[in-house]
Batch of 2 targets.
Target 1
Amino acid sequence: MCGIIGINSSKPVSATIINSLKKLEYRGYDSAGIATLYDGSINEIKSEGRVDNLEKSSLVKNMEGTVGIGHVRWATHGLPNSINAHPHSSQNVSVVHNGIIENSTLLKKFLVGKGHKFKSQTDTEVIVHLITENLKTENIVDSIKKTLKSLHGSFALGIIFKDEPDLIVGARRGSPLAVGYGPNENYLGSDSYALKSMTNKITYLNDGEFCIIKKDHVEFFSEDGTKINKKVLELSSEEEKYDKGDFKHFMAKEIEEQPITLKNGIKEYIDTSNNDINIHNFPWKINEISSVTLIGCGTAYHSCLMAKYWFEELTSLDVNIDIASEFRYRKNRFKKDTLYVFVSQSGETADTYAALDLCIKNNMKTCAVVNVIESSIARDSEFVLPIHCGTEIGVASTKAFLGQILILYILALKLGSLKKDIEKKTFIEKINDLKELPKLIEKTLSLDNKIQAVSSTFNEAKGSMFLGRGFSFPIALEGALKLKELSYIHAEGYPAGEMKHGPLALIEEGMPVVVLAPRDDYYKKTISNMQEVIARGAKVLLITNKSKDEIVSENIWETIEVETTNEDLFPFLLTIPLQKLAYYSALKKGFDIDKPRNLAKSVTVE
Ligand code: F6R
């Protein structure tokens, strides 16, 4: 992951670098650092933990220099401490890096042999020493070209040089990097978001390219060192304001914003007056598509799994789903009549991007379902369906998940209707139900007290399970993931029908088990599976929907009832109590809810 920033200006840069690093903290928050050129030398200040720690340092307050680079780290090689924090510097060169250098051990051996001394345990430090070594015989452009050639793996780099007081080098392979243009100053950043308070004029580097940023102009080079021209894009200059309002955490705010996420999505894609779906400029004819492959990571993968159930119900298309980190290395049989859909909140997830890139290289049809429309995945996909849920700050995805599954549901409905797999009457009924969904979500959001009360039991347990069948199974996986990542409690999501094939052995007296059983086609089967876990001592939290029919089971520990809707839409409602369960459980434990340990919001390393 990691976030990088560089500024070449005629004014002091350290305060602006710190502000930009705060915006990049979603990429990593293990440690942070800054280096500037001043008085003919490189000054470097680094600290463990958040950017706040770095900002508090009196050294940073007094830091001089009009050319500088900064970094927030998500550790890959070496402990998250101030020695391993970036920038890494020799006497002549200072580097910030996002990515992984796969041949760092070999390179280090070579460089140590040449007399270079290493201070950290990071892979990044080899880049510093390689450039330093190459500068002995080459000019800046050739030393960069030669260095990049020696590196295996992925990187976005920001580099400054003691002897070059008007220059920052940026270079990219795999990890994203953007250049920004300001008045008599220019910038480098992991993304346009970090640069937004300074400029909306942006150029994105492509794989293999590097650039030289001077105060008054920027030069771009291809991998072989040939000068190239690149487009300057003008992005929206509106800067979103992020504050928690009256909420304690961004996650709490984002959970409550979900009715708006759904309203935005419905407004964008549903033609309410004609009861139709607007997907404008869809680039393919419907008879060119006979299967869909949905690809994502983590929560976004759960969205893909959710969509599989809907696509199978609503269309005659063959549906495959894949975890991006698996897809990218498998021997895939690419098919011309397959639509490849990439699901991602950030649009920068390295594995999802690599899977997209593979499809592009094989001339496949590619469609992105993303939140960040300026992201790499959105830019490089043939067609984009934005989620429109606004910036998501909490590391645990909540509103983006609901946004993703909404768009995927709408896509399934649209393709089903174009393929004439759904009757017009059913299509209209489903659209009408969808229009009611934001209100139902609002009602579900008010089920707070019970969830707060049960969360203590989850905190006291050694582990927990989340069970569901059919449409509820992907939600069980998502509920377990949320609890794990926020409360650090072991939680497993399982298809309820699979329990007796092994996991039932885990159930012991008092173990909390969430059972998702709305009154859909799977209800009776799930209730039978619930009875099996109750019989073995589990404390079952049943999440079902309101109904006049009594639940025919004894010894249920607690029941939460969501609103009633058509069975396709229960997953939206079931998600809410699970997000809240994870939130309250982490709150009671006093954990850092918006920035859980070991994680980052945008996973830009594989
Ligand atoms: C979990 C979570 C992650 C992300 C995953 C993919 O709450 O947020 O599992 O879903 O890292 O990220 P995106 O959606 O940005 O590709």
Target 2
Amino acid sequence: MKLFTSIYDVSDIHQLVSDAISLKKSPFANEQLGKHKTLGLIFLNPSLRTRLSTQKAALNLGLQVMVMNLDKEGWAVETQDGIIMNGTTVEHIREAAGVMGQYCDIIGFRSFPSLLNREEDYSEEIFNKFVKFCGVPVVSLESATRHPLQSLADLITIEELKKTEKPKVVLTWAPHVKPLPQAVANSFAEWMNKADYDFVITHPEGYDLAPEFVGKARVTNNQDEALAGADFVYVKNWSSYTDYGKMLINDDSWMMTNEKLKLTNNAGVMHCLPVRRGLELSHEILDGPNSLVLNQANNRVWAAQAVLKSILESICLP
Ligand code: CP
């Protein structure tokens, strides 16, 4: 693998899950693979899990790691082409990305959407420019439309815990106080469709995801109906795709609770974190036996390690 920006960069997701589970059992089996190689982790937005789990994964592989919060610690970066830079931006992404490529063998990059212009966000303009101009393999640490390292960790979690070959997995919208990207929900849908589970998406009217991400999933605005018999429930807020970036309603009744859990097949409850307690997910679920949020967070390490190992093999081995 030379690039990890979406599921389309992965030739065999089941092999990648299997590699991740092997690495979980033997974290240091490939500790020579990254020797004398450098991973750069470049953030335009905040992070806890992605930053620490990817760093830990890299250290397990013997990589050196450099982390930069470019939005706070770097010069203001211009992304438009052909512009006369007589405003507030100081250097162009062409040079900034190119320079980082001089120092790193692999770069992880995080760039959230503006949520102001759907066409711009969904074209992944900033992310694609970074990939083009840095000139080295890139791992998405979450882009405007996708969060594939999270989705891989989620798939690992389900594969480890599922009791049937084809579990029922429900992605349910949850309330929030501000508009959030669709990236986690998009990506989760993409990976669940590929895994060929019994996959259902439920949300209030107006929160349909982009059709290319919904794929073959069943969609309903009736949360109770969706939850019936579910083996796994993935809770996530996202802003509207159709009325782009807007919060249309904020109905508290969509919060996942123990009462709703009774509708399911004693489902494992998932969330990528960070989570707003008492708003997106009840305290009782997060503190109870059905919560899988720490399993998911743990699997972020093995997801990142499997991806970095695959990229290192493609650049190190003949
Ligand atoms: N789930 C996730 O990506 O968390 P961070 O934003 O803290 O990295």
